[in-house]
Amino acid sequence: NPWGQCPVNRNCRDKFGDGSCDRECMAPGCLRDGLDCLKDRGHCNPGHIQYCRDHYGNSHCEQGCDSAPCGWDGSDCFANQAPQWAKGTLVLHTKLPHQRSGFSNSSLFWALSVLLQTPVKLRASAPMSANRNLFDFDPSQLASMLTQSSPADSVSYSSLLFLQVDNRPCSRLQTTCFPYATEAASFLRATTMLRPPSFP
Q1: Which of 48, 70, 154, 172 has the smallest CB count inside 10 Å?
Q2: Cα angle value 29/78/67 (rounded, 5°)
Q3: For residues 83 and 178, what is the distance between their CA atoms, to the nearest angstrom?
């Protein structure tokens, strides 16, 4: 339950991403009310979207991509500022095939950053069978997956991504930051479960 850290009597699940600002649901544990309290989320210029996806996190500051709706250019424009990582690691199981040479999918990272309103960075990736459930693993098992080599058999493997949430950009507007990666994970889970109309 993504709202497990939020008091039940606030009914924040029913209010998530409904377009109405509910102050009682603004805490990170209540998933920031689906960011409904942002006065103006803005939009990424349609002509910039593909460019911003393709150039996300490439270590070159693209001013046209340096905004929340455009994914903050993967923090490229914050190179002179010390990282402000959310505590913990955001673990994501994707259907994308694992790559022995390393995982690089700027479109996926860009989309996650747009949803969270702050960038994510790949820390590591590991292969995982597509039919396994991420919630079947405890933290020590997940940590050991990082040290295993890629399997040589022909089983269809998907990717387990270990991401860091970079709070440098959202620190400009504290009400959008997730201090803990678990809160960001709950926010993403709620978004995929409910698909609120206010989300792209």
Answers
A1: 154
A2: 65
A3: 14
Distance CA 34, CA 161 (A): 23
Residue 156 lies in a domain: yes
On whether residue 144 sits in a domain, the answer given is yes
Per DSSP bridges, beta strands 120-129 and 90-97 are: unpaired
List of residues 6+ apart from 161 with CB closer than 8 A: 91, 92, 93, 94, 103, 122, 124, 125
* Structural domains in the chain (count): 1
Residue 151 covered by a domain:
yes
Rg for the chain, CA atoms, rounded:
17
Q: At 2, is the pLDDT very low, low, confident or very high (cuts 50, 70, 90)?
A: very high
Q: Quick check: is 10 in a domain? A: no
Q: For residue range 36-94, what is the model confidence (pLDDT) as tens digits?
A: 988 777 889 999 999 999 999 999 999 999 999 999 999 999 989 988 999 999 999 88
Instruction: Report the CATH number that the domain containing residue 167 is assigned in CATH.
Output: 4.10.470.20
pLDDT computed for residue 149 by the predictor: 58
